[in-house]
Design a protein that fits this description.
two-stranded antiparallel ribbon, alpha/beta
Amino acid sequence: AYTVRSHDLDAWARENPWSIAFIAQGNTGGQLLEPANARSVVAVGASTNDGELWGGSSVGNTPEGTRGIFMVAPGRNIISANSDGINNSLNGDSTKKTGTSMATPNAAGAATLVREYLEEIAQRPSPQGAVVKSMLILGADDIGTRDIPNNNEGWGEVNLRNTLAPSGNR
Protein backbone atom coordinates (compact mmCIF):
# COMPACT_ATOMS: atom_id res chain seq x y z
CA ALA A 1 0.00 0.00 0.00
CA TYR A 2 1.00 3.64 -0.44
CA THR A 3 2.29 4.39 3.05
CA VAL A 4 3.43 7.44 4.96
CA ARG A 5 6.99 6.49 4.04
CA SER A 6 6.06 6.41 0.33
CA HIS A 7 4.38 9.81 0.71
CA ASP A 8 7.40 11.27 2.50
CA LEU A 9 9.70 10.22 -0.35
CA ASP A 10 7.39 11.89 -2.88
CA ALA A 11 7.23 15.06 -0.78
CA TRP A 12 11.02 15.09 -0.44
CA ALA A 13 11.42 14.75 -4.23
CA ARG A 14 9.12 17.75 -4.82
CA GLU A 15 11.22 19.84 -2.43
CA ASN A 16 14.54 18.63 -3.91
CA PRO A 17 14.02 18.31 -7.68
CA TRP A 18 17.74 17.81 -8.43
CA SER A 19 17.87 14.60 -6.39
CA ILE A 20 16.72 11.03 -6.98
CA ALA A 21 15.93 8.27 -4.49
CA PHE A 22 16.82 4.74 -5.60
CA ILE A 23 14.86 1.99 -3.86
CA ALA A 24 15.37 -1.78 -4.00
CA GLN A 25 11.93 -3.09 -4.87
CA GLY A 26 12.17 -6.39 -3.02
CA ASN A 27 13.07 -10.03 -3.56
CA THR A 28 9.65 -11.64 -3.34
CA GLY A 29 9.35 -12.69 -6.99
CA GLY A 30 5.90 -11.12 -6.71
CA GLN A 31 4.47 -7.72 -5.83
CA LEU A 32 7.00 -4.95 -5.24
CA LEU A 33 7.33 -3.70 -1.69
CA GLU A 34 6.88 -0.22 -0.30
CA PRO A 35 8.43 2.37 -0.47
CA ALA A 36 9.31 1.27 -4.02
CA ASN A 37 5.72 2.23 -4.86
CA ALA A 38 6.37 5.94 -4.28
CA ARG A 39 5.73 7.85 -7.49
CA SER A 40 9.00 9.78 -7.52
CA VAL A 41 11.52 7.04 -6.78
CA VAL A 42 13.55 4.82 -9.05
CA ALA A 43 12.41 1.33 -8.07
CA VAL A 44 15.17 -1.02 -9.19
CA GLY A 45 14.77 -4.71 -9.97
CA ALA A 46 17.55 -7.23 -10.45
CA SER A 47 18.76 -8.79 -13.67
CA THR A 48 21.17 -11.65 -14.18
CA ASN A 49 24.62 -11.40 -15.75
CA ASP A 50 23.05 -12.95 -18.86
CA GLY A 51 20.69 -10.00 -19.41
CA GLU A 52 17.56 -11.67 -18.07
CA LEU A 53 15.23 -10.74 -15.24
CA TRP A 54 16.33 -12.44 -12.01
CA GLY A 55 13.51 -14.70 -10.83
CA GLY A 56 13.42 -13.32 -7.29
CA SER A 57 13.03 -9.70 -8.38
CA SER A 58 9.66 -8.23 -7.40
CA VAL A 59 7.42 -7.31 -10.32
CA GLY A 60 4.07 -5.73 -11.09
CA ASN A 61 2.17 -2.50 -10.79
CA THR A 62 1.56 -0.79 -7.48
CA PRO A 63 -1.68 -1.60 -5.65
CA GLU A 64 -2.96 1.75 -6.95
CA GLY A 65 -2.39 0.58 -10.53
CA THR A 66 0.58 2.83 -11.29
CA ARG A 67 3.78 1.44 -12.78
CA GLY A 68 6.03 0.43 -9.93
CA ILE A 69 9.21 -0.84 -11.54
CA PHE A 70 11.42 1.81 -13.12
CA MET A 71 14.31 -0.30 -14.39
CA VAL A 72 16.55 -3.25 -13.66
CA ALA A 73 20.30 -3.52 -13.14
CA PRO A 74 22.69 -6.44 -12.62
CA GLY A 75 21.99 -7.93 -9.21
CA ARG A 76 22.98 -11.60 -9.38
CA ASN A 77 26.28 -12.85 -7.93
CA ILE A 78 27.56 -9.34 -7.26
CA ILE A 79 30.86 -9.27 -5.35
CA SER A 80 30.30 -7.38 -2.12
CA ALA A 81 32.15 -6.72 1.13
CA ASN A 82 31.81 -9.47 3.70
CA SER A 83 31.84 -8.98 7.44
CA ASP A 84 33.22 -11.25 10.11
CA GLY A 85 31.11 -9.47 12.73
CA ILE A 86 34.11 -8.03 14.55
CA ASN A 87 34.23 -4.24 14.71
CA ASN A 88 37.48 -2.74 13.39
CA SER A 89 38.85 -6.09 12.15
CA LEU A 90 39.27 -4.78 8.59
CA ASN A 91 39.05 -8.38 7.41
CA GLY A 92 39.07 -7.39 3.72
CA ASP A 93 36.93 -10.37 2.75
CA SER A 94 34.33 -10.44 -0.01
CA THR A 95 31.30 -12.54 -0.88
CA LYS A 96 28.82 -12.92 -3.72
CA LYS A 97 25.32 -11.58 -3.06
CA THR A 98 22.15 -11.59 -5.13
CA GLY A 99 19.05 -9.39 -4.99
CA THR A 100 17.61 -5.99 -5.63
CA SER A 101 19.81 -4.55 -2.87
CA MET A 102 22.78 -5.45 -5.07
CA ALA A 103 21.16 -4.07 -8.24
CA THR A 104 20.14 -0.73 -6.75
CA PRO A 105 23.70 0.59 -6.19
CA ASN A 106 24.49 -0.29 -9.81
CA ALA A 107 21.60 1.87 -11.02
CA ALA A 108 22.46 4.68 -8.60
CA GLY A 109 26.09 4.60 -9.75
CA ALA A 110 24.95 4.87 -13.37
CA ALA A 111 22.83 7.90 -12.44
CA THR A 112 25.86 9.48 -10.76
CA LEU A 113 27.87 9.11 -13.97
CA VAL A 114 25.00 10.55 -16.02
CA ARG A 115 24.81 13.53 -13.65
CA GLU A 116 28.58 14.03 -13.90
CA TYR A 117 28.34 13.89 -17.70
CA LEU A 118 25.59 16.51 -17.70
CA GLU A 119 27.53 18.81 -15.37
CA GLU A 120 31.04 18.40 -16.81
CA ILE A 121 30.55 17.65 -20.52
CA ALA A 122 27.14 19.13 -21.30
CA GLN A 123 27.74 22.09 -18.95
CA ARG A 124 24.33 21.75 -17.25
CA PRO A 125 24.84 22.66 -13.59
CA SER A 126 22.59 20.86 -11.08
CA PRO A 127 20.49 18.84 -13.55
CA GLN A 128 17.08 17.88 -12.24
CA GLY A 129 16.50 14.29 -11.25
CA ALA A 130 13.89 13.96 -13.99
CA VAL A 131 16.53 14.72 -16.64
CA VAL A 132 18.87 12.06 -15.24
CA LYS A 133 16.01 9.54 -15.09
CA SER A 134 15.06 10.35 -18.69
CA MET A 135 18.59 9.73 -19.88
CA LEU A 136 18.68 6.38 -18.06
CA ILE A 137 15.41 5.45 -19.82
CA LEU A 138 16.72 6.44 -23.25
CA GLY A 139 19.76 4.19 -22.89
CA ALA A 140 18.08 1.20 -21.25
CA ASP A 141 18.13 -2.21 -22.95
CA ASP A 142 15.01 -4.32 -23.34
CA ILE A 143 15.83 -7.67 -21.74
CA GLY A 144 12.64 -9.51 -22.43
CA THR A 145 9.37 -8.73 -24.06
CA ARG A 146 10.09 -5.87 -26.47
CA ASP A 147 7.10 -4.23 -24.82
CA ILE A 148 8.67 -1.37 -22.89
CA PRO A 149 7.78 -0.15 -20.38
CA ASN A 150 6.35 -3.24 -18.75
CA ASN A 151 5.59 -4.57 -15.28
CA ASN A 152 8.66 -6.82 -15.04
CA GLU A 153 11.64 -4.72 -16.16
CA GLY A 154 10.14 -1.22 -16.29
CA TRP A 155 12.05 0.70 -18.96
CA GLY A 156 14.71 -2.02 -19.24
CA GLU A 157 18.22 -2.70 -17.99
CA VAL A 158 20.67 0.13 -17.29
CA ASN A 159 23.17 0.55 -20.15
CA LEU A 160 25.57 3.48 -19.78
CA ARG A 161 27.15 2.81 -23.16
CA ASN A 162 23.80 3.61 -24.80
CA THR A 163 23.02 6.47 -22.44
CA LEU A 164 26.27 8.37 -22.88
CA ALA A 165 27.24 7.40 -26.45
CA PRO A 166 27.19 10.20 -28.99
CA SER A 167 24.22 9.90 -31.31
CA GLY A 168 24.84 7.30 -34.03
CA ASN A 169 27.71 5.61 -32.13
CA ARG A 170 25.73 2.94 -30.27
